[in-house]
From TrEMBL:
<dbReference type="InterPro" id="IPR043135">
    <property type="entry name" value="Fur_C"/>
</dbReference>
<dbReference type="Pfam" id="PF01475">
    <property type="entry name" value="FUR"/>
</dbReference>
<dbReference type="GO" id="GO:0045892">
    <property type="term" value="P:negative regulation of DNA-templated transcription"/>
</dbReference>
<dbReference type="GO" id="GO:0008270">
    <property type="term" value="F:zinc ion binding"/>
</dbReference>
<keyword id="KW-0678">Repressor</keyword>
<keyword id="KW-0804">Transcription</keyword>
<feature type="binding site">
    <location>
        <position position="162"/>
    </location>
    <ligand>
        <name>Zn(2+)</name>
    </ligand>
</feature>
<comment type="similarity">
    <text>Belongs to the Fur family.</text>
</comment>
<dbReference type="InterPro" id="IPR036390">
    <property type="entry name" value="WH_DNA-bd_sf"/>
</dbReference>
<dbReference type="GO" id="GO:1900376">
    <property type="term" value="P:regulation of secondary metabolite biosynthetic process"/>
</dbReference>
<feature type="binding site">
    <location>
        <position position="125"/>
    </location>
    <ligand>
        <name>Zn(2+)</name>
    </ligand>
</feature>
<feature type="binding site">
    <location>
        <position position="122"/>
    </location>
    <ligand>
        <name>Zn(2+)</name>
    </ligand>
</feature>
<keyword id="KW-0805">Transcription regulation</keyword>
<dbReference type="GO" id="GO:0003700">
    <property type="term" value="F:DNA-binding transcription factor activity"/>
</dbReference>
<keyword id="KW-0479">Metal-binding</keyword>
<keyword id="KW-0862">Zinc</keyword>
<feature type="region of interest" description="Disordered">
    <location>
        <begin position="1"/>
        <end position="24"/>
    </location>
</feature>
Length: 171
């Protein structure tokens, strides 16, 4: 069964902190991520955890500089190299993906490290949803192993217009 999960955007002025269910979701996702890292013998340090928390809270692809700004409001901006290092770690652990077409980073929904997924990126509203299925993952794995290729990331980026934006453009 294919499934998609949408990252919802916040409206201007809407604070993620105002929605308890959303912050509960973030807390749960962070706890899960922490446990996953521990199981892999890796440590989710404070900085890595903070970067991941911002990615979970924003639910949209963020550039490294945007992340640096969000991580250090008002204060001196966190060094981008620090953010990049934390992002490298999160990608390695399967907790985040780099979207090459956006030059931006996004948290994975289920923390399915190494699993194949497709990101559906709306060029109009910027919405990103994640889609995957067993068949899709098997097909990609088959193609990759046929070529004798060892993949580091199995992420497909599909750009276009989301269902909502297509509806909005109808007359
Ligand atoms: Zn859209």
């Amino acid at each position: 069964m294919p499934h998609t999960a949408a990252y919802k955007h916040y409206q201007p002025g809407e604070s993620p902190a105002r929605s308890p269910s959303r912050s509960e979701q973030t807390a749960r996702a962070l706890a899960q991520s922490e446990a996953m890292c521990r199981a892999n013998g890796a440590r989710l340090t404070r900085i890595r955890r903070n970067v991941l928390e911002v990615l979970y809270t924003c639910h949209k692809p963020l550039g490294a500089y945007e992340l640096a700004d969000l991580l250090s409001p008002g204060a001196r901006r966190m060094a981008p190299i620090t953010v990049y290092r934390a992002l490298d770690f999160l990608i390695e652990q399967g907790l985040a993906h780099r979207l090459a077409s956006q030059n931006a980073y996004i948290a994975t929904i289920h923390g399915h490290g190494g699993e194949t997924c497709a990101f559906l990126i709306c060029e109009e509203c910027g919405d990103v949803s994640e889609a995957t299925s067993r068949d899709f993952a098997d097909t990609v794995s088959g193609l990759v192993s046929q070529a004798g290729f060892r993949p580091r990331a199995k992420v497909l980026e599909i750009t276009g217009r989301c269902a909502h934006c297509q509806g909005a453009g109808r007359h």
